[in-house]
Amino acid sequence: MRKTNLVPALLAFTTLFPKTVFAIQRFPKPEFESAYTQPQTQIPLPRGEFMAYLDVAVLLIALSVVTWLVLKKRSRLWVFAMSIFSLGYFGFYREGCVCSIGAIQNVSLALFDSTFVLPLSVILFFILPLLFTLFFGRTFCAAVCPFGAIQDLFAFKPQALGSRLNTVLGIIPYLYLGLAVLFAATGTDFIICRYDPFVGIFRFTASFGMFLFTGILLLSGIFIARPYCRFLCPYGVLLNWTSRFSRSHLTITPKECIQCRLCENSCPYDAIDIPVTTKSPESSPVMVKKMMMMVLIVPVLVIAFGYAGSRMQDTLAGVDPRVKLAKEVLSGMRDAGSGMRDAGYKMQDAGYKMQDAGYKMRDAGYKMRDAGYKMRDESFEIKAFKASGKTESQVYSEASAVLKKFYIGGWLFGGFIGLAIALMIGGRMLPVYRADYVTNKGRCFSCARCVDYCPVKS
Amino acid sequence: MKTGKSPQNTIRLLENISLGSAVFAVVLCVLIIVNFIQIKRADPLNTPAMTALIEKLQSDPGNEQLSQEIQTLDLLARKAFFTAQWQVRTGGYLLFISILLLVSCFKAIELISVKLPKEPAGKPPMFWETRILKRQWLVYSGASLLALTLLLAWLTHKDLGKDLGSGKIQDAGYRMRDDVSPTPNPQSPTPNSQSQIPNSQPQIPNSQPPIPAWQEVQANFPCFRGPGGIGITACTGIPTSWDGKSGKNIKWKTAIPLPGYNSPVIWGDKIFLSGASETKREVYCLDAVSGKILWNSPVEKIPGSPSQAPGVSKETGQAAPSLTTDGQRVYAIFANGDLIALDLDGNPVWSKNLGVPANHYGHSSSLMMYRDILIIQYDQRGAPAVIGLSGKTGEQVWKTARNVKISWASPSLINTGNRMELILAAEPSVASYDPLTGKELWSIDCISGEVGPSLAYAAGIVFSVNEYSTLSAVRIADPPKVLWENNEYLSDVPSPVATDKYLFLVTSYGTAVCYDAVAGTKYWEHDFGNPVYSSPMLAEGKIYIMDKKGMMNIIKADKEFSLLSQCPLGEGSFCTPAFTNGHIFLRGDRNLYCVEK
Fold first, then answer.
1. Do A278 and B127 touch (CB under 8 A)?
2. Residue B174: strand, helix, or coil
């Protein structure tokens, strides 16, 4: 590993380390003398200190074994076997938690909120796959991540998606990552966990909607291999970046490529780059001009997207429970309810005056009035607020502070998306030359499927 | 890479197993979805059969067989519900196993029937062309995303920051208003000192209709037992002779559609009453000049209102609490906890249900208005409290929990000379609260039992009374002090009334007693012979005592007993009279009467 790669990794680790503690249950449940069994309200239950480190140890061992299987053993069959183990352990046994993907949010919140306690095991779950990826490519995706493993099971008839669709859908993970970090950093929500399509399956607790979404995702995975990993996974963005710097990445052939083209369509993830031995049809001066224009456009894109993100401040902050409460306290709901009810009464009166048609109007009036009453009913949040003894001013102040965070966060989030798109465009302007078929280090999941297609054996 | 002949038989077997698993999985999936929808729709505790049985039981509470039947049905419904849940859960496990089997078979087939990769037909993809295409698509996608974000931002931007800022200013405004202290009044308080109730009205940031001045409040009769609810009116020219039957001095008489023991309240030329049966609740507004019912507003479809009226005693009824008004709105509360604010034209402004009060005789505490705060004494079993709501919106301004038992008394609002105090009575105490914030100011244990009578107040002394308890005179001081106590004559419904010198008490069985307000010495007693539920009122130095049979006994408010006149209404009456200059308004069992001089 190069020193330049080690420094940021160590820096991140040492920054986060002082905030770490072990995950323990702070408020033990009361014990009853009767035979009453308390229902499990938290899924999965918090792990004891030892068990949390056992999980980390299993992760470390799994990463090491898979890396060895991918790079040394070069065996798709064994990689597949390991993915079954990971699915069983990290998926069904550990019920999808703690996971490296969700750890993004814990780390983000810990970076922006000094009061948030980040367990060391969570940090390790976040960092270890990235470290392995930095050295050996995305072996974590190959057979350690239970999300990838479950999708891999369904990839029976993968079809090429086409470059256009692949490119456009490739923007989504950046959006998801940006939003996840924004919501976590502002203390609003952990959206990756809330909308995780697989934990419901691992825990057998999926809501109907989520069950449907997961079903669609897995069924579509028969034809579009690993749709979540490719077009949603926010952690995949980080792994993609780190993997580009990996030195010992999986190669299709163990020796020299013989240009047989047998591997050309072997990757279900469109992660094999074909040889490029011809020059770009665009002349060098044109390309240079375009590149220079791109350099100028980057800040424009960053600012434009940043501005758009900041303008989404109200909408994004609307997700935050503190802002929701403030809005409700601000009597939006109450007034709307009263207004609708009054409108209902007016319609009702009009209905009385008219005969046949009037009855219909009166009924409509009742409906509107009822809707008004429903809207006016106090939510649990309002009741809780009233019981808390907080003043309205305090609620507004808290919401204003959140709103401010979202203004700054909106700029950063938008800027990040603008930069990502600019770099994606710019990256496709750089000159390319390669003589052989190679894996695309960023996109390749190191699943070792292509290895089986190569007639050259070590 | 593996090569060789695939074992066809194994593959066929695996294909058959996978087909069977697939069919099983699809069937299970459909069944789970159907079962899930059924669970979602099912409400095992509110089935029509169960509701019908519960209704039956309510009309026949002693029916043991019916009770057993309900328990059996309830158990069955719960069993059905949990069985359906078990089915979904078990189905989920079976679905998981079948999918696992299906996937395993497919994977096994994939492993067994490995085919040699074929060289792709045609030339490799055109790299540069594809790359340019990708670049173009990225530009299109980026531009679309930017446009979409800006459009969304434009459509959804609400200037929330400004709203929150203005909300803070408004809240601060309300706090300023609430924090203003009344001007201290060094004068010794008298019954008329109620007219000195401070009414300093700070500027409220938003443009609301002004809170009526105290002079305006006093010129009206805005609540039970007159302004402040202490049984004293400043009205003059009050008639002392009438006969409801013959029509002597009766200006008009109007039948009230629904029964109610609430007393009339008056603002300007409008009289407000309410009436209720077990199925209907109504608020009435009558023209004080003609007696015509100007409007009749049904109180219905209030969110949270119980489908059935609570069980109450006949002597309380469903509409015992008197209404209150601030000249902008009139407020009414009923035995089922329904609370409504109507404008003076009868249009609902807001309404809510406070929850059915756990009160075995039925809720009877009348409403009180101070400035723009509607005050409700909600001394029910379990969670007794006094509540202050915004008259404009019905939002809770304050709520103070009370450590008392159930009470049927109404709040009184007094000016102690230094401040306005809200005084409430319920076992075990007489307690004072700041009417703007609900903060308890003082409390003294001096009353017990099921408190019905409200308080009297004069010259800095609060008088409390209850049957099987005691009559107490409490001097408001720091700390409050019991001046004297007496338990010879007690009341369980009518409230006492006091002047600077005397306290007048009427017992429920019809004996009137006069005490020295400061010393507690009894001056006289007189038995009218008929029970009394109406509270006596003090007007122009006279005490007006209406008995249950409708006879108004008018006596001099003096230490010598002097019966000035007796005026029959012609029908029974439980209600306390209301006054305007030159008029008395009397609610009988069926009619409202206007008496003029």
1. yes
2. helix
Per-residue pLDDT, averaged over B147-161, amounts to 82
Look at A341 and B171 and tell me if their CB atoms are within 8 Å: no
| CA distances (Å), origin B150, targets A170, A177, A312, A316, B139 | 21, 20, 8, 13, 16
Q: Are residues A77 and A160 in the same domain?
A: yes
- Model confidence at A6, in pLDDT bands (50, 70, 90)? very low
Read off φ and ψ for residue A185, nearest 5 degrees. -65, -30
Residues spanned by the domain of B401: 214-596
Please list every residue in chain B whose beta carbon sits closer than 8 Å to the beta carbon of residue A418.
Answer: 142
> Are residues A91 and A236 part of one domain?
yes
For the ranges A12-26, A205-219, B494-508, the maximum mean pLDDT occurs at B494-508
Which of B14, B106, B134, B150 is most worth mutating to test chain A (most A CB atoms within 10 A of its CB)? B134
Length of chain A: 458
**A246, A325: one domain:** no
- Tell me the nearest-neighbour CA distance from B458 into chain A, angstroms: 36
- Contact B119/A455 with Cβ under 8 angstroms? no
**Percentage of chain B exceeding pLDDT 90:** 58
> Would you state the pLDDT for residue A354?
57
Which residues 6+ apart lie within 8 Å of B289 measured at CB?
B269
Nearest-CB residue to A163 (from B106, B119, B130): B130
Task: Identify whether B459 is part of a domain.
Answer: yes
Nearest Cα to Cα of residue B209 among B329, B325, B347: B329
ipTM of the complex: 0.74
Together in a domain, B223 and B106: no
Scanning A237-296 for CB atoms below 8 A from B yields: 260-266, 274-276, 278, 280-282
User: Once rounded to an integer, what is the mean pLDDT over residues B454-474?
Assistant: 93
Tell me, yes or no, whether B248 lies in a domain.
Answer: yes
User: Closest Cα of chain A to B453: distance in Å?
Assistant: 32
- Domain co-membership, B221 together with B97: no
- Residue bearing tokens 């045609």: B122
Are both A268 and A288 inside the same structural domain? no
State if pTM tops 0.90. Answer: no
Is residue A389 predicted with pLDDT exceeding 90?
no
**How many structural domains is chain A composed of?**
2
A208 and A323 belong to one structural domain: no
Least Cα distance to B226 among B538, B597, B589, B586 occurs for B538
Asked whether residue A36 is domain-assigned, the answer is no
In this predicted structure, which of A43-47, B79-83, B247-251 has the lowest mean pLDDT? A43-47
Q: Are A184 and A170 contained in the same domain? A: yes
Q: Is residue B456 part of a domain?
A: yes
A139 in the same domain as A87:
yes
pLDDT at A379: 67
Least Cα separation, residue A252 to chain B (angstroms): 13
Q: Are residues B411 and B527 in the same domain?
A: yes
Number of domains forming the structure of chain B: 2
- Residue B157's pLDDT is 73
Check B160 against A329: CB less than 8 A apart: no
Beta-carbon contacts of A190 under 8 Å, excluding residues fewer than 6 positions away, are A102, A105, A180, A183, A184
Residue-level pLDDT at A129: 97
Taking a C-beta distance cutoff of 8 angstroms, is the pair B276, B285 a contact?
A: no
Asked if A366 is an interface residue toward chain B (Cβ–Cβ < 8 A), one would say: yes
A336 to chain B, minimum CA–CA distance in Å?
12
Mutate to test the interface with A, among B82, B138, B354 (most CBs of A within 10 A): B138
Cβ–Cβ pairs < 8 A, chains A and B:
173
Range of the domain at A411: 281-432
On whether both A111 and A241 belong to a single domain, the answer is yes
Query: What is the pLDDT, as a whole number, of residue B46?
Result: 74
